[in-house]
């Protein structure tokens, strides 16, 4: 097991190098002079020259790449062209809202979706099942920005239950304001994940309910609730966990829109601002950071399998 | 004697689209304290529906009890509330199932699974529960219960799992045990042990046992009384000696007559040319881990044989003996680790895939499960002609060949247009045989080809295999765990255990005078030995 973890961690190194190479080439292979592209249409010749110097674009490409990798290994993701701050620092500043939003969304989604999916599976074919599946299809189909504005309109503007926009840190501004501000974006983002997870839970539990050991559990005189909880859900867990993992990965993409709609100063906004400003070092740094998070997530998901199912051993 | 279970005029209806209105119709019988009642019948006889309805575990969407009553110590199970039924399950009646591999929850330790039933029905403390579980595991003769308590099902053998299921069923000392084909999925030696265990526990506790089986051998070994069911109705019932010794109903007579004899007929020695031989065949599974740990299983260990055209060689063994691995190696479905596989004169053991392909048609196989070895979305005709067409035969000629083969295997040529689900198990196995023959092979491998079939159908398919072997002058490799079947069809047999051939020779000689102790143990463990094979040895 330990051996497997070490192996998996070592395996992330080549993957990260490939990602780094891709990110590096993304700028260099774009048509035209990268410095001019970054500087934009209205830049002066001096601006372009300054950016070229800053990015070290005048050196041979192999030298550039090795230098850049060397910096990366030391945790140096480069410097923002516009704010002149280290990219690592910018990411660190923006990481809290994004991570907390991802966390509240996933927790809320799982707490709603797993019981809902299980119920739909248990009553497969009934009206409960149909309602859950209808919601599920709906949840897939509504774009995040539409849903976000609808929720703002109803819950904030009409009913005046929640603040419209913004973010309050639970660490510096207290848990109450944090919850008030995080609720709407959480609801907005959760809908699609509830749909996704509920669907997978339903399919997985329906399959497990056909298994012989569920019949054995009933033959013991076990109640239906405990049959579901102890025997069905635990065995249905592996695909559910997988989809939750995929959900978290998708979520990181989804926060870009949500953070814009709700004006939350997180990584999603940082991505958006950097793209609009063509601040390549930030974009590169964020891609690398997100890739790392994906790889880490995958490792955690794989490891969780062996906790859920004693037959899976690495 | 007091009746523990009384079933009176019970009828259970099937959904409207089924082929008959009732799963079981007007059945009446009882199970008394201290007796084992066997319900015997083929698939579709309603024997399992009967047992599941008693437990209230029948599929409630498809099956509805419409008449009669089921009295468990006087209480009508059919009118009991859900809560009452749940209390009866485990406390008064318990059930053991056919598939020990799937009857236990794979992610919960076996000790906890037995403990769960105590948690539901008693107010014992955790430590008292554990003590009781260990006692129950000791009662079913499991080795080292303290340690096994924490094991998961996949770490145990099939026999051990079935003992766990029995311990689980009996921990609260129910008055009625329902056993639904509890030994069908087990090896013959394990089956003998489990039957002995059920009998021992039943005698010690004086409970009633309702034992469902399709196997008259098992009936002969365990039953006090026998109930024979056909198409949902009871056709005959009575004490075991009476039903087996002087069966009244033609269906009972037919079933008993279809039990293959363990007394193999004398057969001519085959003199055809060798069609398939294996020399020093070896197959290793697993690999040495990075630090040289790892586990290596010697699945096939230095196996040698020759099968001549017109001859049937049986490979007999229990699960894990390597018999199926041999079949897969000689077909090159898996690659042997070392050794030679000669088809005619060519060694195919190490041929590259592109060189191997022309030889593929020479060896064809019929698998165990006729329900899964045909593609459900292709017509029977498409499945049969696919192989010959791949080898360049004109599709029209292939179809003509398929039509000829259908009449040889006893099916109408029109059946080629239909899909596999429209056929019964025996018919599907005939289709699989036709599919194999369409390739015009020299070697036919039958891998447990009749094991999934009812005993009456089994006899017909065995006859068919024997016929086509003669007709097409085939060399047949017949793989089975069932000694009775082997006795009927094989000219010579090889007995395998743990990858090694322990004994081989002409079938009649091996049965009459087994040399190896393992062969003797296998022969002795065959169910119904006392009853059906009184004369020999």
Structural account:
The complex is a heterodimer of chains A (314) and B (537). With 314 residues, chain A is mainly α. Chain A has a domain at 98-273: MetI-like fold. Chain A has 12 helices and no strands. In chain A, α5 (87-122) packs parallel to α12 (280-308) and α10 (224-261) packs parallel to α11 (267-277). The N and C termini of chain A lie close together (5 Å). Chain B is of the alpha/beta class. Chain B has 3 domains: 3-92 and 175-257, 3-Layer(aba) Sandwich (Rossmann fold); 102-173, no CATH class; 272-362 and 479-537, P-loop containing nucleotide triphosphate hydrolases (Rossmann fold), CATH 3.40.50. In chain B, the strands form 4 sheets. A 6-stranded mixed sheet of chain B has the order 6-7-8-3-9-10, sandwiched between helices. Chain B has a 6-stranded mixed sheet with strand order 16-17-18-13-19-20, with helices on both faces. In chain B, strands 2-1-4-5 form a 4-stranded antiparallel sheet, covered by helices on one side. In chain B, a hairpin with a 2-residue loop joins β4 (64-72) and β5 (75-76). Chains A and B meet through α9 and α10 of A and α2, α3 and α6 of B. Chain B: Keywords: ATP-binding, Cell membrane, Membrane, Nucleotide-binding, Transport. Chain B: Residues 5-256, 276-523 form the ABC transporter domain. Chain B: It is a peripheral membrane protein. Chain B: Pfam families: ABC_tran (PF00005), oligo_HPY (PF08352).
